[in-house]
Amino acid sequence: MQFPLQKSIPLAPLTTIGLGGAAEFFSECETVEHVCAGLEFSKRERLSVQIFGGGSNVIFSDAGFPGLVVKIAVRGIHFEHDGEWMIVRAAAGEVWDHLVHVCIEKGLAGIECLSGIPGLVGGTPIQNVGAYGQEVKDTIVEVRVLERETLREKILKNAECGFSYRASRFKTQDSGKFIVTEVSFRLKKEGRPTVRYPEVKKIVETAVPLSSLADGRASLEAVRSVVLSLRKKKSMLIDPNDPNSKSVGSFFLNPVIEQKQFSIMSERWKKIGDGSEVPAFPSEDKVKLSAAWLVEHSGLTKGYRKGGAGISSNHSLAIINCGGTTRDVLALASEIEERVFGKFGIRLVREAVVVG
Ligand SMILES: Cc1cc2nc3c(=O)[nH]c(=O)nc-3n(C[C@H](O)[C@H](O)[C@H](O)COP(=O)(O)OP(=O)(O)OC[C@H]3O[C@@H](n4cnc5c(N)ncnc54)[C@H](O)[C@@H]3O)c2cc1C
């Protein structure tokens, strides 16, 4: 079968951080059949394959990718009534924030706090995208996937996806095994927005007359605009005029550690720290720490620069490209990791995917 195939395509302009060399081969696939044909081609030619969505959580090596990059560009959004719920089936190549916007316009609640996250629908289950009190796992019904080895399509129910904090089976034990082709969400018709996250709650309580707004579109739009304004302040919205948004979002995850390790760390901080408490949140039987707090208290500040990379002036977990290279970004990431480990004995885990 014919499928679109290009050679030597620069990857940097296709990523939000603007880094990486060229892909040896690149295929923008608007149908699942094209994806299959691309995979068959790569098998015949013995090429490595990298699946690619919106390029907002991936950093390619400066040398580029010696193989085939398959951009998932399958489009389409379908709505199915289910009583007071709506089942929304979105193809993997739809822009995530477009889907959020369309759903809000229809008064559908459940993903409004995920407004403004860059990337495509197919990327959202990979790391169980989340922000401001919502995660996609809360509303995903099922994920349609293509198994790379067999080229067979499968449907994985929510419970089969292994969702957890910024992770899923697609990012852990089955990393690279499946290609997401469609995601189905169950959203509440004329629903109330989720106002759970402290920062959102505070603004809503002081500045947004939510109680006077009707359920559905009006109140969902109000929360969307609060979330978008918070994200803009932190440069967590892609804006070509904001150099602090030239990133992959948060580079590191919030560490989840054992109680025992937390006690040791807190004792150590009492001796060497500035008298402040270590912010900690319960996470099942463990403790979740703030990676941003760890970075800031390791001696690195927002706006720090090293070579052609830096820490965003508006977010201490975002490493930004300041006209440098992937090598610069990774060198800064290593420095941050070493500083945090040196001071707290905690190893930061990277959220972003580094390819090559
Ligand atoms: C400014 C900014 C803010 C961000 N804020 C948040 C946030 O608040 N919360 C959050 O969770 N994330 C956030 N992110 C990270 C990122 O936007 C999400 O992880 C997003 O879902 C990635 O989707 P993508 O299409 O860009 O994936 P890509 O970056 O193209 O790919 C990321 C990984 O997913 C895989 N992948 C992508 N599509 C598919 C598919 N269809 N099938 C199989 N594998 C696939 C790729 O192979 C790669 O390993 C932010 C990023 C930026 C730049």
What is the overall shape? globular
CATH class of the largest domain: Alpha Beta
Counted by DSSP, the helix tally is 7
Low-confidence sequence ranges: none
Mean pLDDT: 96
Description of the molecule:
The protein is an alpha+beta fold. It has three domains: 67 residues, Uridine Diphospho-n-acetylenolpyruvylglucosamine Reductase, domain 2 (2-Layer Sandwich); 157 residues, Uridine Diphospho-n-acetylenolpyruvylglucosamine Reductase, domain 3, CATH 3.30.465; 112 residues, Alpha-Beta Complex (Uridine Diphospho-n-acetylenolpyruvylglucosamine Reductase, domain 1), CATH 3.90.78.10. 25% of the residues lie in helices and 26% in strands. It is built from seven helices and 20 strands. Strands 6, 7, 8, 11, 12 and 13 form a six-stranded antiparallel beta sheet that branches. A four-stranded mixed beta sheet has the order 1-2-5-3, with helices on one face. A three-stranded antiparallel beta sheet has the order 14-16-15. Strand 6 and strand 7 form a beta hairpin. Helix 3 crosses helix 4. It starts with 5 loop residues before the first strand and ends with a strand. The site of flavin-adenine dinucleotide (FAD) has 32 residues, from strand 3, strand 9 and strand 13.
